[in-house]
Protein: Methyltransferase small domain-containing protein
Organism: Glycine max
Amino acid sequence: MEPDRLNSPTTFEMPLEVMGHELQFSQDPNSKHLGTTVWDASLVFAKFLERNCRKGRFSPAKLKGKRVIELGAGCGVSGIGMALLGCDVIVTDQKEVLPLLQRNVERNISRIMQKNPDSFGSIKVAELQWGDESHIKQLVLHLTTSLALMLFM
Ligand SMILES: C[S@@+](CC[C@H](N)C(=O)[O-])C[C@H]1O[C@@H](n2cnc3c(N)ncnc32)[C@H](O)[C@@H]1O
C-alpha cells in the first residue's frame, strides 16, 4: 500500500478535511467487517460534494432540509458530507457497525457545531439490515416527508 494514501484498513484514525471542517473518523482494523473501514468511494464522494457545493444542485440552497438515507454507511463519511450541506440524513448499517458509526457521527457533529452549526442539517444513526421488514418499517415511521436521495456506495 502506498505510504501517502489517506487511509488503509490498518489505520485507527483517519483525518479528513472537507468543506472547511477538520473531521476525524475512527476505523477498526481489528474487525473483519466491511463497514469498519472508510472506503475510498466515500472519500471521493465527500470531495465531490466539496467541489460542487458552491452552486447548482449540490448547493446548500438546493439541499437544505432534503431527506437523505444512506444504506451501508460504514464510518459515516458520505452521510456527514450531505448533512454538512443542510440535508436531514439517516445513516444506516448492520448492527455490528453501529457503535463505530454512532461514535463517528457524535464526535464529528461536536467538531462541526463548534465551528459553523448554521449550515448543518441533521444526522441520525439507524439499524438497517437489507431486506429486514421490521427495520424498514421502523425507518418508514421516521420519514415524515419523502426522500430526496438514497446513497449507496
Ligand atoms: C463497501 S462498504 C462501504 C461503507 C461506506 N459506505 C464507505 O463508503 O466507506 C459496504 C457497507 O455496506 C454494509 N452492508 C453490507 N451488507 C449489508 C446488509 N446486508 N445490510 C446492511 N448493510 C450492509 C457494510 O456493513 C458496509 O458498511
